[in-house]
UniProtKB/TrEMBL annotation:
The keyword Nucleotide-binding does not apply. InterPro entries: WD40/YVTN_repeat-like_dom_sf (IPR015943), WD40_repeat_CS (IPR019775), WD40_repeat_dom_sf (IPR036322), WD40_rpt (IPR001680), WDR59-like (IPR049567). WD repeats lie at residues 125-160, 212-245. GO terms for molecular function: signaling adaptor activity. It comes from Bionectria ochroleuca (Gliocladium roseum). Keywords: Repeat, WD repeat. SMART domains: WD40 (SM00320). GO terms for cellular component: Seh1-associated complex; vacuolar membrane. Pfam families: WD40 (PF00400). This is Peroxin-7. The keyword Hydrolase does not apply. SUPFAM superfamilies: WD40 repeat-like. One of its GO terms (biological process) is cellular response to amino acid starvation.
Length: 373
């Protein structure tokens, strides 16, 4: 059962939530403790619920009712630690959550009765011969997702026909650590294998569209640019975050962020020019960088973050997510608000509000015009 450190008055816990603007948790800094061997976390498309995945199954926390015990879905004795869990990003498939179970991927259906034969597990995707390291839903088609594994393969699955992969990409020399669909091009997907970045096209899956020897040590994070179709970033334990454009002939990064720590994950923020990095080691703080200022740092020197979010010290951060409310109007006025959500090895889920000054430091002002980043 979660225990709450800070929240609103208990008398308000029964308040009916009609929209994101009725959510008191969105405007509060909150810490929730949840027991269990949780391997990863994911957020629902609406931003209201968090799913925590462990060998026991899923614990789903309603962030607007954090006093209530989480809804628990059992995996019925599967012993493996969870390396990744992903909630479908599509509102039309908001009942699907996929988690890893060694060499299998489990597709959970939140609308399925738990007392049915397989419980809430609708599909078990079995195509890898070794442990799955990452899962990613397509940004373009609600029934497609990909998995990658230590066996070196990347499988694409169609959940309308889940018995076997519909497409496979393979690096014959190194296991895969990450897989990510392009945010702009429905045919393009990227994967990382040891120090190498591969970009694939599903219309020619036999060999990579582009291969880049990107880092000195293993890559642990991939992220596509939110606007430019051919731009993406990688991060590694070599203490760098690199920005690439695979359409260029020369395999040199456009920019490099040098950090003081091995980088486990680094992703573009959904606002401004931000890049948020998560260290591999303790303490579990999160570091926000401004991509527009990278040219100001002398080559090879450590890049100074514009803000450090206090995390899970003395433990490590395991995952970070974003809650969003508001939207973008037809006249391109950007009225969105954001809240940072993180999970750590201290078994705490932290919700942190963002000061307007922090948003401004990476080029975002609420109510301003939407920028082409």
């Amino acid at each position: 059962m979660p225990s709450l450190d800070r929240f609103a008055e208990p008398s308000k816990k029964g308040k009916v939530i009609r929209s994101a603007y009725d959510s008191e948790s969105f405007e509060s800094d909150i810490t929730i403790h949840v027991d269990g061997l949780v391997g990863s976390a994911t957020i629902s498309p609406s931003g209201r619920d968090i799913a925590l995945a462990s060998p026991d199954g899923l614990a789903i926390i309603d962030l607007d009712s954090p006093y209530n015990p989480p809804r628990r879905l059992r995996s019925y004795g599967l012993p493996w630690l969870v390396t990744d869990v992903q909630w479908s990003p599509f509102a039309a498939r908001d009942y699907w959550i996929v988690s890893t179970a060694n060499h299998c991927a489990l597709v959970w259906n939140l609308n399925q009765r738990e007392d049915s034969t397989n419980g809430a597990i609708e599909h078990s995707l079995q195509g890898h011969t070794r442990a799955i390291t990452d899962i990613n839903f397509s940004a373009h088609h609600p029934d497609l997702l990909s998995t990658c594994s230590v066996d070196g393969s990347v499988h694409s699955w169609d959940l309308r026909r889940p018995r076997q992969p519909v497409l496979t990409y393979c690096d014959w020399f190194a296991g895969a650590t990450q897989v990510k669909y392009s945010r702009q091009d429905p045919h393009v997907i990227a994967s990382s294998h040891d120090r190498w970045l591969h970009v694939w096209d599903d219309r020619r899956a036999s060999e990579p569209l582009k291969s880049i020897n990107a880092h000195k040590t293993k890559i642990y994070g991939l992220d596509w640019n939110r606007v430019k179709p051919t731009a993406l970033s990688t991060c590694s334990l070599d203490k760098t975050i690199k920005f690439w454009d695979y359409s260029k002939e020369v395999n040199e990064p456009d920019h490099v962020i040098h950090t003081e720590f091995p980088v486990w994950r680094a992703r573009h923020t959904p606002f401004g020019w931000g890049m948020l990095a998560m260290p591999q080691n303790e303490p579990g703080d999160l570091y926000l960088y401004d991509r527009k200022r990278l040219d100001e740092t002398p080559t090879g020197e450590v890049t100074k973050p514009v803000h450090i979010f206090p995390g899970h010290a003395p433990q490590k951060a395991k995952e970070f997510l974003w809650r969003t409310r508001g939207g973008i109007s037809e006249d391109r006025t950007d009225d969105r608000e954001f809240q940072l959500v993180s999970w750590g090895t201290d078994n705490e889920l932290r919700l942190q509000c963002l000061d307007p000054e922090v948003l401004s430091d990476v080029g975002y002002v609420k109510g301003g015009e939407l920028q082409r980043l």
